[in-house]
Amino acid sequence: MDNLKRVIVDFKKLTPEVLKLLVEKYPDGYDDLNIISFKNAQGERIEAVEVTTEDTKYLVKISAKLESTMANYDEDDYEDFEGDDPDAVVDPDLLPEEGEMDDED
User: Fold this and answer.
1) Both ends of the chain: CA-CA distance in Å?
2) Phi and psi for 67 in degrees, rounded to 5?
3) pTM, whole model, 2 decimals?
4) In a 3-state reduction of DSSP, which class is residue 13?
5) By the 8 A CB rule, do 48 and 59 touch?
6) What is the three-class DSSP state of 9?
């Protein structure tokens, strides 16, 4: 039995470090074989994918936002943030669409 700390992570609490681990482990995205299903304390069914560091096993809840963020991952986007900063990973719904950013003259 491992002695790893176990952490369930929602997209809102995703850090650059965990996002990078996800992209490295699932470079082409995850599929049904990678998904772990379980019930939380409230009896709700949760689906997550797993990544592990030296001391922690993370179960990252699956969502459309997670899939979009992984698909558009660029390590340079996070170079100005600490690896454990949950404010660094931006909700993809809040990002401007390509072509929406206008240069002001």
Assistant:
1) 62
2) -60, -45
3) 0.73
4) helix
5) yes
6) strand
Question: pLDDT tens for residues 70-102?
Answer: 888 888 888 877 777 777 787 777 655 554 444
Q: Tokens 């909700």 belong to which residue?
A: 91
- Which residue bears the tokens 């690896």? 83
**Furthest-apart CA atoms within the chain: distance in Å:** 62
* DSSP string of 29-95, one letter each residue: ---GGG-EEEE-TTS-EEEEEEEE-SSEEEEEEP-HHHHHHHHT--GGGGTTS-TT-TTSS--GGGS
The CA–CA distances, whole Å, from 62 to 31, 35, 59, 69 equal 11, 8, 9, 11
Cα separation of 61 and 66, whole Å?
8
Section 19-30 average pLDDT: 91
